[in-house]
Amino acid sequence: MLKLRVMGSPFEVHTFINHVQSDPQYKVEYTTEIYKHINHENEAIAFANLEFSPTRRDELVVKISTADNKECEICLLDGQVVKMGDHITLISGKVYDVFS
């Protein structure tokens, strides 16, 4: 669980808390906003308890065959495949090391 304290102008604090609440990675369990008069300016202080749940990450397995019929597999996180032309395909993603 994350505990968050945000201070600033009431509009910015309210906008920020609404943005966090709309993010599907965070489940906001509790939030409160307090308005105080600090240094001759109105400021808001918001407290929130957040539960973080990472997004589901799909794995893409790319299999490449060599000229001598050997196969090589590359596992990519967040993989994307884009057909660029007749014989050109762009494959991108993140590589991870299971031993790190």
Automatic annotation (TrEMBL):
Taxonomy, superkingdom? Bacteria
Q: Which organism is it from?
A: Thermoflavimicrobium dichotomicum
Q: What is this protein called?
A: Uncharacterized protein
